[in-house]
Automatic annotation (TrEMBL):
Domain of life: Eukaryota
Protein name: Uncharacterized protein
Lineage summary: Eukaryota, Metazoa, Ecdysozoa, Arthropoda, Chelicerata
GO molecular function: small GTPase binding
GO biological process: vesicle cytoskeletal trafficking
InterPro entries, per the entry: CCDC186 (IPR038830)
Coiled-coil zones: 8-42
Organism: Medioppia subpectinata
Amino acid sequence: MILPEVDKQSLIERIIKLQKSLEKKSEKIDFFEEHNQQLIEEMKKKSKLIQYYIMREESGALSTTSMDEHKRQVAKRGTGIMSSLYNSAPNDTTMTLELSLEINKKLQAVLEDTLLKNITLKENLNTLGAEIERISKDKK
């Protein structure tokens, strides 16, 4: 069966159009899969942080009121940027709301990173302890 030339050309154009559409959709799927994986990793990190805070609160490791009062007293004497952050009132003339928020954001990121590293180190220590125990049992 021989198709007219016009029909062949329109079919080829249609195939090309569908292939381009398929390629775009494949790229979107790849992007969403990668983004989904990133979100899952971020959620795991946040879950570890929440777990850390809950365990810390349950163990009573949160600062006491006397410790908070001591920090307030130190902050009252201070005139630097950090005392401005703790007091919620500017002790330093260069402290602006934007600067305060930026410093707070950076400190939060450092805190989260440090906590995640500490959690990972604790898990590694537990794994090493279990491995040492297993090896010592095998030798006996």
